[in-house]
């Protein structure tokens, strides 16, 4: 969505002038620093909303005037879409590195050479600290033009409190002091100090309604009294003195398939991105070992820092002292080189009535024969071109919505059973008079129709396989993990959630 | 207020008192600090500050100061800030807190709150932690503007620096050092020095951060700060390492000498350092390594030579003369590569990128590709991460197509990608294009051309143009496709196509009149200036080929000339001039008209051009000599433009034409400079490799380790060896070997293997000792290694003496470990060593294989109690390393580690069975297969067999030994491997055999990753003149490697592989095969499996693993009466099982 939607260029310009008219002297340090080389790492951070307002600034070194953001606004203006703003922008004296999350630009100002990924990764980590991972519906809608997207599951257990549910402008503004305190702890002199959310939560307690009330009455604070012990130990990710009456460990294996399929429904490329999210609530300092039946499937893996690399290298066993609460244990990638089976097929067809501005868009969706399992929460969304006036739909299953503003057609199919073949028919495509002929407008999405011999890029699929909880206390024989709890851990009971999806998804032998 | 009585008296007293407490080292500094303190006081006094003894609380003093200080800005206070001030001065903590929160909100919005400074600063000593923190936030923000007032808070921090709570000490230092007030520099310096020797690593970390702050405040402190850095670099805490290296990078990046003695420590600590520190350390070590080690990149060329020497000397008598390798990778260099590799699996994308660039800049060329997968994985990350990673991949893919070609599909563009992501992916796809995949890529491109994103569509057309020029096979196809695009409805697409076609036509000087005519027809409809100009240029350039059309186009242009863009006007003038020269009859008037128009154009370029052209082409008195050459000047044949990667130049957001010349790869990968393709402030050039590596001994550290009591025997056993390894003798020998003295060279090649393993264990031990970890596994592994080493030495001395099988096995493993340590250099030498040891051990292997597990068991049993004792001793459970059963991961996971592992497996706490061990080959008789017959091979014949050795190149590869024989009457040159199919096939080729004399033969080894399938590997065997398609189809049994396990393990593993994973058949065995020995002989001849010793007479068990995926394959043969037997195979590879069953059945049925 173009950011200029939010504010007219004239208004933007005014704001520009506004900013410039502020006396710069009050923002600049009275005396420039001596001739030392410009300091490395992150100098300042500006948060900018979609309409181009700087609503938060934080400086870790001497103050950088916010007029530096004008270069960013220029780039923003040039970009047609918000996400087209280049992440790295040079200005005469500084460099701006930005990330866009939840319609907020996090713009870091740096003065000299630093690996850009270092800054980008840090900024993302800041956002992740603010909010629960996975609660980012916006992200998905930005990425997907046509996607199957079940609602993303939080881990199957109650999550531990995070700072704010979703990192929005309002949430940040409401909690600006907490944000400031967090940022103060996360960077020292522009260099990351504490980025583990477990530690930060000990330093600064997440705001809750109850605590806010108590604080206002008693005058007590959100700030922890003690240095988190984790910070000092070799296990900086875990706090000490954890106690639970029910000791539980949950592991969710979530796999997402990215695929490009062509018009006929066959796959051009498919990749799997899998993660194991864990929610571990165990007393003391447990040392866990997780082994897999078929570890070789894990093609390329990245770990939470708690996982011991060497043990994995040598034995393909995950051995770790878990952080307390929710964390992402590992994520893995099964590349397109391997055969990835896609559970559904999608076919689409577009026809136009000659000489009329109407057309017909058929979309067929069905399970692949080979899959014996039901696919749940299937959502197809297709971005129709701007010329489309209205769409009447005739879904054979599920419900649809069409947003005439964004031209986004979403079809919530729901569960697909292997027998049924749902079929969505768009009876009419009404368009209003653009300069070009109607079918021109359709062209973007009808690539398939135009080039029958060719593969077609759209629609893309993102599939999250919903995970089911099997009987938690009796792991079924085919599940692929087992949990071993080692020393230091008194196990009252350990609970299990296993996925039911994996093995069929990726056969690695070629 | 809980201040102690004596501190209340005077702020100055504090520093004085401290003076007496401190030891001598800081005396001068202390004086300075005291001086600074005095200055503070003076300036406070100048503010009419009363710091009288009777003041009992510091807060009061501050209140006074505040009262005094607030006098000035009073007028400027706004109403809103006034009430904040009141709140701050109230007695209620909650009100103060509320006020501070509101102030922080003001700050966060960028509003000026500096006028509240006096009111805020007096709360600096508050007991309420949150209030205090917020005051700190304020202080750090405004201290620079209100220096005088800021000084008042200093004493509070000074006191806090002495607090027993490390957290308070650290945070005091943090804030103190963040106050950018030059006057307190000496105080900061003192504080940093003290904190640098604090007991708490957290405080030391803070002091490392403070170093940078102080340096940016006052660069004159550099020398003293370097001392602190030097001290902190020696720190062994992982907490400190990242921060101090950061400080090093900022303060004294050129003092590379400080790193030497810390180098190995940093390498070893790296895995456990926090992720941000890892990035900094890796980047620093990259720079370090580029100055300290010899280039590993020349090695390929050198290796070829050596290889040749080696193969020539196959006959025994030359063996001694074999030249030593001129390039041996410095073990420290290897250490760095080895220790950074696991970090590719970090969740932190910056770490992964840092390792990737390290490998790119430091690793031998053939090892770089291990970073590919991880980089591709990063593409699934956030958009911004994708952007940077793709930029780097784009640079890499220009130089090394092969690295990313298998992952081509990961770069397919998604319609939802941001434009800059799309452009980068397009760039990479174009870089990856070759003859084999161009059709796929072009098909992709065709869909991209239809994209709604016009900028991207245009970029795609450019890319098609590049493919067309780079790959001559598809030039015509592309050209036709582009011509079709000319009738596209979208203007940008058409325009871009025109521009690209223009360039293509230039590179293809053949007749393309039709296309030019077609474009002339389209001319009226095209409005994009660049496209119009391109068409005009084409008309002019090839006007003689389109004699009728060109003048007509000129006529049209004459009409519209005044309304055209400048670039079109210029080309119109050009066209006119060229036509005037070729076809003056028709165009003379037109040309004159156009020249007249141009003469009065507003643009001076056009006026200039017109004037120039007129003088050049129209003969007159003035025009002089040039006139004669006009034709040659204007109609000279122009060199075709090179369609280069746009990425080689600028792709960023600021189009700077002059940077186009410069390649992005001049910058270190992963840097900001690389990302922007401009040299950023503070960018440090990555130096070139030194011609001669500086003295490696500077990195030697005397091992004085406090933890040695953990494993005293171990320390003693190893110490002499490690000394020897790093001693000068050794270096001399290494250096000397380059000069090629016969004696030492042969010695060094054989002894290096043992020494290498010595270094291995030495490194390990130093690692052990540095960490306070129990590492009992390691200690036993270390001793294991050293004992095996001594054995191998023994063996060397007494070659004639029969060696026990266990020893020989160890030796083989040992020499393998050498390869891993030594990289490619060791490979050739070891193959000979191995084959010799192999021939010795083969004969004994059969009989002895039953016994071999027993001594292993003993070791395990022996070490076990030791472990328990140690784990009781262990202080913390937090150690990260206590499980690392393997030596520091070798780049190619090795036989060495796995065999070690099996020795240690009993120590592991997991219940994973000990069925992990993979042994070396267990069976000798070699079946040789024909690869190429000499009739079809024009004299070159090739035979291959499976040596059943673990492959040296990659553990997932099957080793194949190929014997090349020249049976022709002339020598064959440059025998090498050409194209391979299927494309996904992973073959490690042998190095090119430069020359093969008639009648001679060489044996070379290949590594092929069959991915556990018996699909044939097809490739081309090429000589200088010819290419022969050959294929290697492995028998299923060759895709296995033996795995020794004990019977109980076997049974438990077997139980896991029941059901569909079990394949069985009853077979009737040939009578000759009934004896147990014969059966195992037959089985082993078919499959490369290991014998599992069994008590039961009627059962025979064999175990193996598939090479590529390591899946267990268990074979059970149950003898029944009357020479029938039940053959069972358990493996999850069911296809392999049935094939193996068939093969075994056949072998056992036949006599």
From TrEMBL, chain A:
- GO biological process terms, semicolon-separated: intracellular protein transport; vesicle-mediated transport
Give the UniProt subcellular location, in the record's own words.
Endomembrane system
The annotated regions of Basic and acidic residues compositional bias extend over: 11-21
SUPFAM superfamilies, A to Z: Second domain of Mu2 adaptin subunit (ap50) of ap2 adaptor, SNARE-like
Where in this protein does the record put region Disordered?
Answer: 1-36
Q: What is its main location?
A: membrane
Bias-annotated ranges (Pro residues): 26-35
| Gene Ontology cellular component list | clathrin adaptor complex; endomembrane system
Keywords, A to Z, come to: Membrane, Protein transport, Transport
Pfam families under this entry? Answer: Adap_comp_sub
Domain (MHD): residue spans on this chain? 246-497
Which Gene3D superfamilies would you find in this protein's record? Answer: 3.30.450.60, Mu homology domain, subdomain B
Family to which the UniProt record says this protein belongs: Belongs to the adaptor complexes medium subunit family.
Record's protein name: MHD domain-containing protein
């Amino acid at each position: 969505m173009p950011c200029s939607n939010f504010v007219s260029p004239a208004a933007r310009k005014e704001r520009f002038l506004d900013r410039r008219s502020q006396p710069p002297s009050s923002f600049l340090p009275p005396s420039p620093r001596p001739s030392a080389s410009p300091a490395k790492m992150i100098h300042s951070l500006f948060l900018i909303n979609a309409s181009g307002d700087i609503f938060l600034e934080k400086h870790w070194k001497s103050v950088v005037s916010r007029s530096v953001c004008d270069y960013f606004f220029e780039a923003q203006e040039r970009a047609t879409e918000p996400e087209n703003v280049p992440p790295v922008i040079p200005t005469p004296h500084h460099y701006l590195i930005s990330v866009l999350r939840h319609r907020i630009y996090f713009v870091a100002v740096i003065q000299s050479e630093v690996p850009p990924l270092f800054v980008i990764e840090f900024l993302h980590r800041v956002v992740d600290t603010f909010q629960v991972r996975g609660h980012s519906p916006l992200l998905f809608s930005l990425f997907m033009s046509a996607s199957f997207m079940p609602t993303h599951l939080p881990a199957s257990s109650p999550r531990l409190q995070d700072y704010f549910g979703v990192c929005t402008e309002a949430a940040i503004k409401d909690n600006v002091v907490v944000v400031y305190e967090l940022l103060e702890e996360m960077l020292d002199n522009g260099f990351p100090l504490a980025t583990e959310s477990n530690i930060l939560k000990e330093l600064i307690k997440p705001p809750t309604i109850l605590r806010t009330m108590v604080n206002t009455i008693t005058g007590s604070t959100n700030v922890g009294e003690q240095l988190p012990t984790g910070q000092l130990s070799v296990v900086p990710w875990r706090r000490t003195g954890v106690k639970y009456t029910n000791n539980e460990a949950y592991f969710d294996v979530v796999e997402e398939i990215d695929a490009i399929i062509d018009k006929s429904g066959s796959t051009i490329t498919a990749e799997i991105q899998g993660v194991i999210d864990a929610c571990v609530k165990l007393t003391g300092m447990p040392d866990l070992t997780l082994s897999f039946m078929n570890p070789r499937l894990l093609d390329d893996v990245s770990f939470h820092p708690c996982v011991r690399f060497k043990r994995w290298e040598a034995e393909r066993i995950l051995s770790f002292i878990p952080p307390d609460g929710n964390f992402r244990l590992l994520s893995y990638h099964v590349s397109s080189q391997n055969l990835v089976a896609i559970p559904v097929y999608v076919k689409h067809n577009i026809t136009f009535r000659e000489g009329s501005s109407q057309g017909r868009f058929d979309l067929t969706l069905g399970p692949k024969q080979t899959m014996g399992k039901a696919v749940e929460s299937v959502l197809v969304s297709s971005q129709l071109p701007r010329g489309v006036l209205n769409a009447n739909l005739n879904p054979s299953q599920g419900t649809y919505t069409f947003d005439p503003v964004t031209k986004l057609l979403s079809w919530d199919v729901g569960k697909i059973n292997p027998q049924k073949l749902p079929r969505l028919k768009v009876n009419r495509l009404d368009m209003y008079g653009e300069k070009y002929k109607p079918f021109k407008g359709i062209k973007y999405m009808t690539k398939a129709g135009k080039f029958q011999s060719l593969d077609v890029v759209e629609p893309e699929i993102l599939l999250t396989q919903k995970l089911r909880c099997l009987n938690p206390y009796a792991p079924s024989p085919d599940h692929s993990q087992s949990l071993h709890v080692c020393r230091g851990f008194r196990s009252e009971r350990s609970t299990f959630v296993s996925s039911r999806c994996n093995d069929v998804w990726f056969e690695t032998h070629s | 207020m809980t201040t102690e009585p004596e501190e209340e008296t005077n702020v100055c007293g504090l520093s004085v008192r401290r003076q007496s407490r401190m030891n001598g080292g800081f005396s001068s500094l202390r004086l300075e600090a005291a001086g600074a303190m005095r200055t503070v006081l003076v300036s406070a006094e100048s503010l009419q500050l009363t710091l009288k003894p009777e003041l009992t609380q510091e807060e009061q003093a501050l209140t006074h100061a505040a009262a005094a200080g607030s006098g000035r800005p009073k007028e400027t206070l706004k109403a809103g800030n006034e009430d904040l001030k009141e709140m701050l001065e109230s007695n209620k903590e909650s009100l103060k807190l509320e006020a501070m929160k509101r102030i922080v909100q003001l700050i966060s919005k960028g509003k000026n709150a500096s006028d509240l400074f006096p009111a805020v600063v007096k709360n600096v000593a508050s007991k309420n932690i949150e209030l205090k923190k917020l005051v700190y936030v304020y202080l750090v923000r405004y201290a620079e503007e209100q220096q005088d007032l800021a000084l008042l808070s200093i004493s509070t921090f000074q006191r806090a620096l002495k607090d027993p709570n490390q957290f308070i000490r650290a945070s005091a230092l943090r804030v103190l050092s963040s106050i950018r007030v030059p006057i307190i520099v000496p105080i900061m310096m003192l504080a940093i020095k003290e904190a640098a020797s604090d007991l708490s690593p957290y405080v030391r970390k803070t002091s490392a951060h403070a170093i940078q702050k102080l340096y940016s405040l006052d660069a004159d402190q550099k020398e003293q700060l370097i001392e602190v850095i030097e001290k902190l670099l020696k720190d062994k805490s992982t907490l400190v390492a990242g921060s101090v290296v950061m400080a090093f990078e900022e303060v004294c990046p050129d003092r590379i000498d400080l790193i030497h003695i810390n180098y190995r420590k940093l390498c070893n600590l790296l895995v456990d350092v926090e992720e941000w520190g890892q990035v900094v350390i890796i980047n620093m070590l990259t720079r370090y390594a580029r100055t300290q080690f010899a280039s590993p990149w020349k090695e390929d060329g050198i290796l070829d030579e050596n290889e040749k020497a080696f193969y020539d000397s196959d006959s025994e008598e030359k063996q001694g003369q074999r030249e030593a390798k001129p390039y041996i990778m410095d073990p420290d260099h290897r250490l760095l590569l080895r220790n950074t590799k696991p970090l590719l699996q970090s969740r932190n994308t910056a770490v992964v990128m840092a390792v990737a660039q390290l490998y790119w800049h430091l690793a031998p060329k053939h090892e770089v590709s291990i970073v590919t997968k991880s980089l591709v994985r990063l593409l699934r990350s956030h958009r911004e991460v994708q952007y940077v990673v793709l930029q780097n991949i784009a640079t890499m893919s220009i130089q090394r197509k092969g690295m990313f070609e298998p992952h081509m599909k990961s770069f397919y563009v998604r319609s939802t990608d941001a434009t800059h992501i799309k452009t980068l992916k397009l760039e990479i796809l174009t870089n990856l294009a070759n003859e084999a995949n161009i059709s796929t890529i072009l098909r992709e491109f065709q869909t991209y051309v239809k994209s709604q994103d016009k900028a991207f569509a245009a970029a795609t057309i450019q890319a098609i143009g590049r493919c067309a020029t780079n790959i001559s096979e598809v030039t015509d196809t592309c050209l036709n496709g582009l011509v079709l695009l000319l009738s596209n409805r979208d203007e940008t697409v058409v325009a871009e196509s025109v521009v690209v076609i223009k360039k293509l036509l230039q590179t293809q000087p053949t007749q393309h009149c039709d296309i030019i005519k077609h474009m002339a027809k389209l001319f009226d409809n095209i409005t994009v200036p660049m496209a119009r100009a391109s068409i005009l240029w084409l008309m002019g350039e090839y006007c003689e080929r389109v004699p009728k059309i060109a003048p007509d186009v000129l006529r049209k242009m004459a009409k519209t000339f005044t309304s055209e863009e400048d670039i079109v006007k210029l080309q119109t003038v050009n066209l006119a001039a060229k036509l005037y020269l070729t076809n003056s009859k028709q165009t003379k008037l037109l040309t004159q008209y156009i020249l007249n128009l141009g003469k009065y154009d507003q643009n001076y370029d056009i006026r200039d051009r017109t004037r120039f052209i007129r003088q050049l082409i129209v003969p007159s008195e003035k025009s002089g000599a040039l006139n004669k050459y006009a034709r040659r000047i204007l109609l000279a044949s122009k060199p075709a433009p090179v369609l280069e990667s746009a990425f080689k130049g600028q792709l960023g957001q600021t189009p700077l034409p002059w940077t186009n010349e410069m390649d992005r790869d001049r910058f270190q990968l992963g840097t900001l400079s690389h990302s922007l393709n401009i040299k950023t402030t503070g960018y440090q050039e990555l130096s070139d490799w030194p011609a001669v590596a500086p003295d490696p001994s500077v990195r030697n550290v005397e091992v004085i380790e406090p933890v040695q009591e953990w494993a005293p025997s171990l320390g003693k056993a190893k110490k002499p060896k490690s000394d020897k390894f790093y001693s000068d003798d050794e270096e001399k020998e290494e250096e000397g070997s380059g000069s090629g003295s016969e004696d030492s060279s042969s010695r060094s090649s054989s002894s290096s293997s043992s020494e290498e393993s010595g270094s291995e264990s030495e490194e390990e031990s130093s690692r052990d000792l540095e960490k306070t970890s129990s590492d009992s596994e390691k200690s036993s592994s270390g001793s294991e290694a050293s004992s095996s080493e001594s054995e191998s030495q023994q063996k060397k001395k007494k070659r004639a003496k029969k060696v026990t099988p266990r020893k020989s096995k160890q030796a083989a493993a040992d020499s393998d470990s050498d390869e891993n340590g030594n990289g490619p250099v060791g490979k050739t030498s070891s193959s000979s060593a191995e084959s010799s040891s192999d021939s010795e051990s083969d004969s004994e292997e059969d009989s002895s294989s039953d016994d071999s597990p027993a001594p292993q068991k003993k070791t395990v049993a022996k070490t076990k109690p030791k472990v328990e004792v140690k784990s009781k001793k262990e202080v913390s459970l937090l150690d990260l390393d206590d499980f690392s059963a393997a030596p520091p991961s070798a780049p190619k996971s090795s036989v060495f580690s796995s065999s070690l592992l099996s020795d240690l497996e009993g120590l592991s706490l997991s219940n994973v069975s000990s069925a992990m061990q993979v042994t070396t080959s267990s069976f000798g008789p070699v079946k040789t297969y024909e690869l190429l017959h000499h009739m079809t091979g024009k004299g070159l014949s090739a035979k291959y067999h499976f040596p059943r050795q673990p492959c040296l190149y990659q553990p997932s590869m099957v080793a194949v030994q190929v014997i090349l024989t020249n049976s022709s009457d002339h020598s064959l040159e440059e025998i090498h491997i050409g194209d391979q199919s299927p494309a996904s096939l992973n073959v490690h080729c042998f190095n090119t055999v430069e020359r093969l004399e008639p009648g001679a033969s060489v044996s070379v080894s290949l590594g092929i990753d069959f991915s556990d399938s018996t699909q044939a590997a097809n490739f081309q065997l090429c000589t200088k003149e010819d290419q022969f398609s050959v294929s290697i189809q492995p028998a299923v049994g060759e895709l296995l490697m033996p795995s020794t396990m004990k019977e109980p393990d076997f049974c438990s593993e077997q139980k896991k592989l029941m059901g569909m994973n079990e394949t069985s058949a009853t077979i009737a065995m040939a009578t000759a095969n009934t004896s147990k020995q014969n059966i195992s002989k037959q089985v082993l001849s078919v499959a490369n499996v290991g014998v599992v010793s069994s008590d039961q007479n009627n059962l025979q068990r064999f175990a193996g693993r598939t090479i590529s995926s390591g899946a267990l394959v268990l074979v059970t043969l149950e003898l029944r009466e009357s020479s029938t037997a039940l053959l069972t195979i358990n493996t999850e590879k069911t296809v392999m099982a049935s094939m193996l069953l068939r093969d075994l059945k056949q072998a056992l049925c036949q006599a």
